[in-house]
Description:
This protein is α+β, with helices and mostly antiparallel strands. The protein has one domain. The protein has 5 helices and 10 strands. The protein has helices at 9-16, 37-53, 56-75, 131-147, 187-198, and strands spanning 19-23, 80-83, 86-90, 95-98, 101-104, 116-122, 155-160, 164-171, 174-178, 182-183. The strands form 2 sheets. Strands 1, 2, 5, 6, 7, 8, 9 and 10 form an 8-stranded mixed β-sheet that branches. The protein has a two-stranded antiparallel sheet with strand order 3-4. β6 (116-122), α4 and β7 (155-160) form a beta-alpha-beta unit.
Amino acid sequence: MTFSDFTSLGQIQEQFQINISSANHMFPHVQPIPVPEHYAATREEDIALALAMNTEKARSEFIIAPLLIEAWRSQKAHVSLFSGWELKVEPEHGLSGRCDFLFTASAQRLLIEAPILNIVEAKNDNVQSGFAQCIAAMIAAKKFNEAKKRSIPAVFGCSTTGTEWRFLKLEGDTAFIDFDDYLIVEPAKILGILVHILQTVH
């Protein structure tokens, strides 16, 4: 069993005794960050290419990754970004699998070091289909941080189709799912939230 085997929030609640709660405006004070010119120059063309192919891989490579890279660039002295790496914490409980993307609060780029800050789950169909899988990975990240004695107040997550982004937060035994949808047509808002998350432990 892996992260991807979790397909419903009920599974998460029952197996891990995690409360699931909605959150109104999880990031009310976070300011947009203007995207760099080089990103803005190719964004529309990259999005059109990804949507024409209409696969999770294309969306990950041409829409999601470029924006995550801009967030990483802004904080790269303090954080690392990993793509497609396996996180194995408690395989017997399903807390194992490949993460589409994850950020750590470490400049180490050759291995995943605690604390893990943010898990990003790429989806081709709709963001809600990624909630359970994303929360399972966030639980694994929380346990990973605790085992390495680098526990942090909250682990964040994001389920995204590339064009639509929804953020989550695991704090204590409660997973919060933000009501707000963020669309790629306003990348400055998404970039602002990503950078805010990466700055939470600095």
